[in-house]
Write a structure and sequence with these properties.
alpha+beta, Rossmann fold, Isoleucyl-tRNA Synthetase, domain 2, 7-stranded mixed β-sheet, 6-stranded mixed β-sheet, 36 strands, 33% helix, globular, RNA-binding
Length: 938
RNA sequence: GCAGAAGUGGUGGAAUUGGUAGACACGUUGGACUUAAAAUCCAAUGAACAUUAGUUCGUGCGGGUUCAAGUCCCGCCUUCUGUACCA
């Protein structure tokens, strides 16, 4: 019987689907284990071999955990709202729901043929109204919450309103906008409802505010900071400009400290945690208030070095700073205005590219040093960013290199306030070795002492206090797009109102085009039926809007990360229409035990999802603080591109080994035309494109034509994309799974080379032949040999360790070694071969199911207990000792395991080969490590 | 600039606590089977020297610790990833 993988794989995939083999139960006596892959976006191109890498790894782990007796939740679904489907809709007029549906079908077919153990009964799609109903619901909860700094958690906004009615906001310590005024209870109670709502927006966790946003004209939408790479849009590489717009924002900054602290409690990679730490950007220091001479204005700055306050010799404001126009003296007016105009014109990108040029202008105004009362000149300069801190810095040139460079450039004094440090060449920024001098009451103190003292003194003077600053900004939550979740929001007198939760979902309206309107409104502005009737609680025709009972609905939609910020909870109870998931399900599954995905989501999805989890916990909807306990980033699989070389100016191609010093042009050839020995199928290449049809090919003497190889990112344009469908047809899903793992460590970037798959495919054939010959199953009930038991048990040990360490590549080698050994031992024993199948089944589930059933078992192998490791089979009576001379291994010597150190030394020294090596010398020293090694020195 | 990861044969990679460097594969070469091919099987395969026995070198580079270093320490170089005038 031959190993007919196509039939076997189809058979078992059908079996799993029919029997719902991998359906997870929400009630079980078994311990739970939740394995999750990062949500795929179903793109039109389908999967290439790089995509399933993480899915295969998580699938192996999920299957392993089932063998280990866990109730495993291993779901899959689609992040199905998003820009590509919408761009496609704009180009073709097709509804994004239609193309999304088609793409999902392709994905599903491709995923199914790889044999994943997903519980498809729990599939979720973010674009499905049953799902986004709850995304809208969470949005409403955020709107109805504020962040209380005293309790350090989110609380219901009604609590805040009660307090405002009772005592105004004097005693309230909550996260709010910078410009929130102080008010009394009388003020509050005297205000109109609109005014009250305006104030409440300053506290709500999601709020509408005029913000400066990253506007991408080409995409017609706003982008979040993490959607911009090097000043251009991440998708498409379009220009991004700053623009003021009224937008929904998420008050994620309220959670900055908890998001930072939480990192200590989760097992994520260091690089990922580090990215999040940098993104949150905590800095501890002080806020210092400077008076402006001859003005009532004050300038507040944030500094991490209050200890260097006596080294201040100027201040710098961002050119956009609101005080600039107020304090600039008439003499400096023209110069300042010219500078502001010049910097405003420079795009973010230019400003970033050109960090070296120092520019700035003196405003003519002076601040007053809080301690010395000396005048401090106020400059403006674009090295100060309006968006960080207060948009102003106190410049200490002796202690900060940027201030130093600025001072040098403009000939500003650089007073030295450090003991025994030379600052004639550069600033001194070493906090550890700082001793302050020339600084009145701070003299002689180190960094820590001086910082503490300076803050105390500033507080006494009322000129500052200790402060912690975060780089993390509130996240803009609106997109001027069609294909996203609609907001459950309508407007009364310009004030946003939430639709009651019981009327959700508010489904996407139909539009005739997916472009912004002529007036520049988002695509939903084209919908005819997009108004809210508050009496009937229905979405009605816009013509009915009377602003009495029928109001306009929000035209923006939610961003891509809305749906993916909580989907991991939905899988726990995917069809619940009473709640986003039942309390029982949430209590049982808690959070994700293992999350596998790419590292590109470090500061986007993975931060927002943590934020929403903490919010849901605060409001009592979930029990957990973090949604994923452990996270692994899989590396990318790169393509191995193939190049053919065309002689410059001629339609003549030359085999790689004959190129020599001719001037040639490398041209990408499709990798499917190239075999394992880098030989090109010339005919296939000719037929590929008309211009190659009549080309000449200079081949090697043996008639072969060699291509060059280079490792690049896998991409259509490089013709190096390998489709898993072809691999499955030609070698089978089990070969694909094994090979993806065999390529190397999961986290590492590594090139794909289809040629190597014959290795694992050969292994599967050998495995098959161990069980089956021409007459069918050849497994017997014979007593296993000692050697076979040893092979089995060392394999159990190694594989178990490997899986626990996510070292899947080494377990594939271990299987190969085991099968090679058992084949050599001519093992046919059921007692060996049955457990071996269970070991391999997480990696190669189809072939093992088939052999398991052929061995006479009913039902799936997937829940059979993992074999128990028994040390006793590995105990050796002797050891083949490596004998080294001065650290160099010369020969080996078989000696009993229980031999004493002294006897080993004696035996080794008496051995002929030892004397041969020593050539009459007397060893100075003999090191014997029993069970390991012998080293002879001398 | 800063942070993180990584550098081992022709290639992917292995070596879990310092103890036989290169497991397991790919590729290459030779052989068996075959009319031939495919498939399968066997053997060799880090480099140099040597008829053999064997010797020398060898884990990015330079030092060091140790009986023993891919592994530990110090100083560099290169590549990848992320991030950046963050006060």
């Amino acid at each position: 019987m031959k190993y007919n993988f196509n039939d076997i794989e189809a058979k078992w995939q059908a079996y799993w689907a029919e029997n719902q083999t991998f359906k997870a139960e929400n009630h079980s006596d078994k311990p739970k284990y939740y394995v999750l892959d990062m949500f795929p976006y179903p793109s039109g191109a389908g999967l290439h071999v790089g995509h399933p890498l993480g899915y295969i790894a998580s699938d192996i782990y999920a299957r392993y955990k089932r063998h280990k007796g866990f109730n495993v939740l291993h779901p899959q679904g689609y992040d199905s709202f998003g820009l590509p489907a919408e761009q496609y809709a704009i180009q073709t007029g097709q509804h994004p729901a239609v193309t999304t549906e088609e793409n999902i079908a392709t994905y599903r077919r491709q995923l199914d043929q790889i044999g994943f153990s997903f519980d498809w009964s729990r599939e979720v799609r973010t674009s499905n109204p049953d799902y986004y109903k709850w995304t809208q619901w969470i949005f409403i909860q955020l709107f109805n919450s504020y962040y209380c700094n005293i309790d350090n958690k989110a609380e219901d906004i009604s609590e805040l309103i009660k307090e405002f009615e009772r005592a105004g906001n004097a005693k309230v310590d909550a996260v709010c906008d910078e410009d929130t005024p102080s008010f009394s209870a009388e003020d509050w109670n005297s205000w109109s409802s609109e005014k009250q709502q305006e104030i409440l927006l300053k506290y709500r966790l999601t709020y509408l505010a005029e913000t400066e946003v990253n506007w991408c004209p080409a995409l017609g939408t706003v982008l979040a900071n993490d959607e911009i790479v090097n000043g251009v849009s991440e998708r498409g590489g379009h220009t991004v400009v700053r623009k003021k717009m009224t937008q929904w924002s998420m008050r994620i900054s309220a959670y900055a400290e908890r998001l930072l602290q939480g990192l200590e409690t989760i097992d994520w990679t260091d690089s990922l945690k580090e990215s999040q730490r940098n993104w949150i950007g905590k800095s501890v220091g002080a806020s210092v208030v400077f008076n402006v001479k001859n003005h009532d204005e004050t300038i507040e700055v944030f500094t991490t070095r209050p200890d260097t306050i006596f080294g201040v010799s100027f201040m710098t404001l961002a050119p956009e700073h609101e005080l600039v126009s107020k304090i600039t003296t008439p003499e400096q007016q023209a110069e300042v205005e010219a500078y502001i105009e010049k910097t405003a014109k420079r795009s973010e990108r230019e400003r970033m590219a050109d960090v070296k040029t120092i520019s700035g202008v003196f405003t003519g105004a002076y601040a007053e040093h809080p301690f010395t009362k000396e005048p401090v000149p106020i400059w403006i300069g674009d090295y100060v960013l309006a968006s960080y801190g207060t948009g102003a810095v106190m410049a200490v040139p002796c202690g900060d290199q940027r201030d130093y460079d600025f001072a040098k450039h403009f000939n500003i004094a650089i007073p030295n306030i450090f003991e025994g440090v030379d600052i004639s060449e550069e600033a001194f920024a070493d906090k550890e070795n700082t001793v302050i001098g020339n600084s009145d009451f701070l003299n002689g103190l180190n960094y820590k002492q001086a910082t503490k003292k300076a803050i105390e003194e500033l507080e006494k003077l009322g000129h500052g206090q200790g402060k912690t600053n975060y780089r993390l900004r509130d996240a803009v939550f609106s997109r001027q797009r069609y294909w996203g979740e609609p907001f459950p929001v309508y407007y009364v007198n310009g004030m946003p109102q939430m639709i009651e939760a019981k009327h959700l979902p508010i489904t996407l309206p139909e539009v005739e085009k997916y472009l912004p309107t002529e007036e520049g409104e988002p695509p939903l502005g084209r919908a005819d039926v997009w108004a809210w009737n508050t009496e009937t609680a229905e979405v009605v025709n816009n013509e009915l809007i009377d602003n009495k009972t029928i109001f306009p609905l929000e035209l923006n939609t939610m961003p891509g990360w809305a749906g993916s910020s909580w989907y991991f909870f939905r899988y726990m109870d995917a069809h619940n229409d009473e709640a986003f998931a039942s309390k029982e399900a949430l209590d049982y599954w808690q959070n994700v035990d293992l999350y596998i995905g790419g590292s590109e989501h470090a500061t986007g999805h993975l931060l927002y999802a943590r934020f929403w989890t903490k919010f849901l916990k605060d409001r009592g909807y979930v029990q957990v603080d973090e949604f994923a306990k452990k996270l692994i980033n899989q590396g990318m699989i790169l393509g191995t591109s193939a190049f053919v070389y065309r002689i410059e100016g001629e339609n003549k191609f030359v085999s790689k080994d004959l190129v020599q010093d001719q001037t040639v042009q490398p041209i990408h050839a499709d990798v499917s035309f190239v075999n394992a020995s880098d030989e090109l199928d010339v005919d296939a290449f000719r037929n590929w494109r008309p211009e190659f049809k009549d080309a000449q090919f200079i081949t090697a003497e043996d008639g072969t034509f060699k291509v060059g190889r280079e490792v690049e990112k896998m991409s259509k344009s490089k013709y190096n994309v390998v489709n898993p469908d072809n691999i499955c047809t030609e070698y089978g899903a089990d070969s694909l799974r094994l090979y993806e793992m065999f390529l190397g460590p999961l986290e590492q970037y590594k090139p794909w080379n289809t040629a190597g798959i014959t290795g694992v495919h050969g292994f599967l054939k050998k495995l098959w032949k161990l069980y089956v010959d021409d007459n069918g199953i050849k497994v017997t009930d014979a007593e296993p040999s000692k050697d076979s038991l040893k092979t089995l048990h060392k394999t159990i040990k190694k594989v178990e360790e490997d899986i626990e360490n996510f070292s899947f590549n080494t377990s594939v080698s271990t299987f190969m070694i085991a099968v090679n050994e058992l084949t050599a031992q001519k093992c046919t024993s059921r007692a060996i071969l049955e457990p071996l199948l269970v070991l391999i089944s997480p990696y190669a589930p189809h072939i093992t199911e088939e052999l398991w059933s052929q061995l006479g078992h009913e039902g799936s192998i997937s829940t059979v207990a993992f074999p128990q490791f028994d040390e006793s089979h590995l105990v050796e009576s002797s050891k083949n000792y490596p004998i080294s001379f001065n650290g160099k291994m010369r020969f080996t010597m078989e000696l009993p395991m229980d031999m004493s150190k002294e006897d080993i030394e004696k035996a080794v020294l008496e051995y002929d080969k030892t004397q041969e090596q020593l050539q009459g010398r007397t060893p100075k020293k003999v090191i014997v490590v029993p069970g390991k090694i012998v080293n002879i020195v001398g």
